[in-house]
């Protein structure tokens, strides 16, 4: 019997009992799909973590949890981290060994994290506007692709920052932002947030405010009446009235991303910046290696569990094969009586199980792909 | 596969048994089968009471039952000298068997069941073979049900499908175990017509209990059990 | 006046060298560096050091000094696209304070001597019932101090070389030349300083703080409108300042209207122009020539 005839006969037998075939394939596919999906998701997670960490050599923050700091600084998640003075970014630049990008992650707008940074961030992350521009002046906001789609906002729209947390002591108040750009999608955490210049987040902080310019003219006290207060609508026509309230070198940042020029500069910067008071230097690759190690440990645990499930599935399949052979004994005897060799009978059975296996694999792949598609991007879990 | 037209082959019997002894397992019954032969072009009916060993003798000639003693030839080949694989190949290509319980595969339709020996290697499965399968089914009145599965066929229809399957590869010897037992007389008559026509220059050994049919055969061999054998016209 | 002649000679050399000594610029692999500045002294400095290796654009419109000028959105886009943005960083360019600049491209040339910045007294104000406060501000015009200006030149050198290593030799040579002249100017000013220290000076503007700080001069600012005769309050302030300092010279950034000149002379003050170096095409050092016109103090 040729393989073509064997496959044809096997396919007819499987189609004849298609319900049983599908059930058997599903029973095989499910224990395959779960670890498959878990591996794909965890691989994506670990690779995503590693790629982001690799693209961010050093992170500076206030002393505290380095995991919280790394997750906040790399995945732009608002976190209750102690602030860092903005002068730290200047100190990094003054070393002349690399770039520094500030991050301010205290606020949100319509539930999306509001990321205060500088235009350097977009260059470092390769974020190009799909529409409009990067932030140009106070009050400009640029939306990540997914945030823009989810909020239904585009260039020219307005968005108001969310009211601060009730026990926020910083006296922050909502500010109306202008959407001046929407970024092209990247598939990373930058897609889900709203970017603005760090100066704008300092407006929310109350560190930059607007009133008549008291710095011109004679020294002396100017009392600002109600008419001097400017609504927190950062209208470009009135931006000239805004000015820093004190030295912005002391303004708060959540973190500073540091991009050394080379490996030697990285080592030098890590050493020098580590000596700054109230500054913690974190190497994201090391933090991510810890996180990835944890993920892989959990995965090994799950793999062990899946191995047991696979063993029980194998026993179940053996039982099904045995019962199937018994139930179809007359049919198989008829084949032999007509002239089929025992080898041909074995080939026929193998062809049937091969087809069931292929169907199970296809179902498992589809299930795993569906799982990966339905479950959120692992990079966003952090 | 097809009945030979070689004159020498015509002189050789298509089937023959000599001192054949069949047993049913250790301690089981034993059948001492008297010698007889089926000549080329001969249609032989095999009769006898139930339990006389007709089916066992047929299965032995098909190479499906072991020969304990003596010798048997089927389609010109000695069976005892061949191993199981040789007997199977010989059966597949040279012998057509109509089993008492039909032995149809439930997942194949009538035509596919008829073509099964070809799928297993009895001959090429091409357009001509499919056409022949449909012709055979039409000859036994099953043209309309060629694509029905056995579960959708009556017992009589299943029996005729089994008959066609035994003939599809033009075997030299046809061994039929009560091939018309489930058919009404008219249908049985038509089925035997087809059987006789298809056997042609080959040989037919057909178990039948219907005395009315005996007259249509060249010879009736009666197996009386325990080795008794009677031959009548 | 002999010293005055020497100063003119020094600055003439600086200015001429700036035009004539550019020489062939090293090949820039990526084309000339696109540099944006806001105030004239920085434009002059970048062009002077970068030669053919740079294309410098002063973004503020003609006639606008760039002290308070605030760029529109389109200007900010130009800033974001520049290879390098060279700012003084102290006191001036206040219109950039709240603009989204690409920090990696920004060089604040005065950042290296922040400890020498001079705070500017500013008005205090209150918000509602809040405490009275004022916002920090700094004096600009650091380029009027030759030594500070040299450090600013070094900062520009570092920025250019970091972005175009191929320019290193040419930029270093030009810097060395400029530094020599700035050092010479400093020595000349330092020699002149004892005489100037003996003569208290009034000034109509706050632009001379860094020179005064460097050479220990006494310069008191009395804000003065150079176009209209002083009103009673200003006249009273001037009278009080003259009485308090015995000053005989009033430093002004440009020649006042004749009526103002007459009013000053009426008070015993000789208006003496010491330019702030903001005029387009003027070298900052040449601005200091104004000091040469300050009458020497009696021995």
Explain what the structure shows.
Chain A has helices spanning 3-16, 18-54, 66-75, 87-94, 120-125, 145-151, 198-205, 263-274, 284-327, 329-338, 342-374, 378-381, and strands at 58-61, 84-85, 98-109, 112-117, 129-132, 140-143, 158-160, 176-183, 194-197, 208-210, 221-224, 242-244, 252-253, 255-260, 280-282. By secondary structure, chain A is α+β, with helices and mostly antiparallel strands. Chain A folds into 2 domains: 3-49 and 291-381, no CATH class; 58-215 and 223-282, no CATH class. In chain A, strand 3 (98-109) and strand 4 form a beta hairpin. In chain B, helix 3 crosses helix 4 (110-122) and helix 4 runs parallel beside helix 6. Chain B has helices at residues 7-11, 54-61, 84-94, 110-122, 127-139, 155-167, 185-199, 211-214; strands at residues 15-23, 30-33, 36-38, 43-47, 69-74, 77-78, 95-98, 173-177, 203-207, 219-225, 228-232. Chain B is an alpha/beta fold and 233 residues long. In chain B, a hairpin with a 2-residue loop joins strand 5 and strand 6 (77-78). Chain B has a single domain, classed as Rossmann fold (3-Layer(aba) Sandwich). Chain B is globular and about 45 Å long. Chain C is of the alpha/beta class and 299 residues long. Chain C has 2 domains: 2-186, Nitrogenase molybdenum iron protein domain (Rossmann fold, 3-Layer(aba) Sandwich); 193-292, 3-Layer(aba) Sandwich (Rossmann fold), CATH 3.40.50. In chain C, 42% of the residues lie in helices and 12% in strands. In chain C, strands 2-1-3-4 form a 4-stranded parallel beta sheet, covered by helices on one side. The relative contact order of chain C is 0.14. The A-B interface holds A 1, 5, 8-9, 12-13, 15-17, 330-331, 333-341, 344 and B 62, 64, 85, 88-89, 91-93, 97, 99, 101, 103-108, 112, 116-117, 119-122, 125, 149, 165. Strand 11 (221-224) of chain A pairs parallel with strand 5 (124-127) of chain C.
